[in-house]
Amino acid sequence: MNAAVAQLGFGQVRHTRHRPRHHAFAYATCFLMLPMRSLRAHGPGALARNRSAALSFHDTDHGDGRADSLGWLDEVLHQHGIHDAQGEVWLHTYPRMLGYSFKPVSFWYCHRPDGSLRAVLAEVNNTFGERHCYLLDAPRYGQPCETAKVFHVSPFCPVRGRYRFVFMRTQGPTARTVARIDYFDGVGEAALLNTSVSGELLPLDARTLRRALWSHPAMTLGVIARIHWQALRLWWQKAPFFRQPPAPGDFVTAAVPSAPTVTAEPRQP
Questions:
Q1: In sequence order, what are the residues at sequence separation of 6 or more whose Cβ sits closer than 8 angstroms to the Cβ of residue 205?
Q2: How buried is 122 (Cβ within 10 angstroms: 0-12 exposed, 13-18 middle, 19+ buried)?
Q3: What DSSP assignment string belongs to 122-157?
Q4: Helix (H, G, I), strand (E, B) or coil at 236
């Protein structure tokens, strides 16, 4: 397995709600895309890992809070019968900025040794301090995969229905990633919410670190502020309100997604 390097993504977060009123917003963002197995084997390079810095990554922000988040992920995969995801694991996540972090969702892209995608684990945090993971077994880039919604995220969405995920990744001179999540609440056939995060991927080095810090110096505070501002707008629009239910008994919800048959799969990272 060739050594991969940590990357910074620069792009947009988009969110559209269709009921009871159309409500949409988009904002610029930056994020990390980390090759976790390569970082374990070859060190963090320019990434400030598990130490204080203006922009950093801390393993304890993920999984069960242990110092080796990749070890936790491998345990989760093995517990769910996934033993062939021994290739690169790319973690799409937000960094700590100026020591602070809030990660609404992180994606662990788990590959086989031949580079094909084996599993994706979506790690979701809500603003109530809770965390839950959705494990997608045998997804494919560019194809939809689904799982039941079991975790409370927003007081303006019920804990029912399903999520539909679509992941895309391109390589080459302009590498990009897209993660889209559509939420279907079971009212009619159309989605209640369409959300996505996308961006161009660049090597993490002194230049891209400066760009991230200059363009998003207070990103964590901005993420939290935007969540509460959009919640206030939904309340003002009289969107239905749902009280927080108990968290799921299981930390990981495993789903085998159903997807249509295709003749070719996009090139893997």
A1: 46
A2: buried
A3: EEEE-TTS-EEEEEEES--TTS-EEEE--S---TTS
A4: helix
pLDDT in tens, 78-136: 999 999 999 999 999 999 998 888 899 999 999 999 999 999 999 999 988 999 999 99
Length of the chain: 269
pTM: 0.89
Mapped onto helix, strand or coil, the DSSP state of residue 78 is helix
Residue 48's pLDDT band, with cuts at 50, 70 and 90, is: very high
How many of the other CB atoms lie within 10 Å of CB of 200? 14
Who contacts 256 (Cβ-Cβ below 8 Å, separation ≥6)? 137, 138
| Ranges of each domain in the chain | 7-255
> What three-state secondary structure class fits 180?
strand
